[in-house]
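As a point of orientation, let us examine one representative protein, giving the amino acid sequence and backbone structure tokens.
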Amino acid sequence: MLSKSQARLFFWVGTIMFSGVFLWLTVDTIAKVPDQTHEKNMTAAVIRGKHIFDKNNCMGCHTIMGEGAYYAPELTKTYERRGEAWLKVFLPDPEAMYPNARRMVKYKFSEQDISDLIAFFKWVGEMDLNGFPADPPLKQSTTAPNTTANTAGTSASASSTLVAAPAVYGQLCSACHQIGGSGGSVGPALDTVGQKYEQAWFKDWLKDPQAIRPGTTMPKLPLSDSDIDALATYLAAQQ
């Protein structure tokens, strides 16, 4: 049983000690902010992108760094998940990428606005947030060739050559399509699409889907000639 004087001493010593610990942790945290946020990479474009993000009240629907609303997807790692190419297509017209599946407002962003927003998302995504947000448990796709049984009961490869997916496939196409069970489900799966169409058809389709099939929900993507060639080769190999 403590006396009054001992209790008073215990209170003051404990208060002063834990206040000191709290102040030390606060100073230590603030000192680490410039390095963890990569403050040196905060360009004028990043600042403009942050102002655009705030001006349009994006946090009214989205969260970023854990703050905001939970109606729409979390945006802390949106640059890492989607990439610059996808964001350049999505931000001007969200519904064009996901017809009748997205409720995001179509803002009147200029090309400069979009570039600044992407710079902001890239900067946020590169912050050291101590493991936040956690990586989602995504299903990994396989690159094993299709096989068919021969008359001797052994397996033979249905495709002698494996074609690696070009980078643009992961940046744009996989947002809507699946191969090997990995990707989006807005558009049809592409596992055996090479059995239906030839490489030349894919080139024409990717250049202008509406010209091939008027009314299709497939958007016209900003693909370079080299992107189209690489994608056509890859899709034609999906047997």
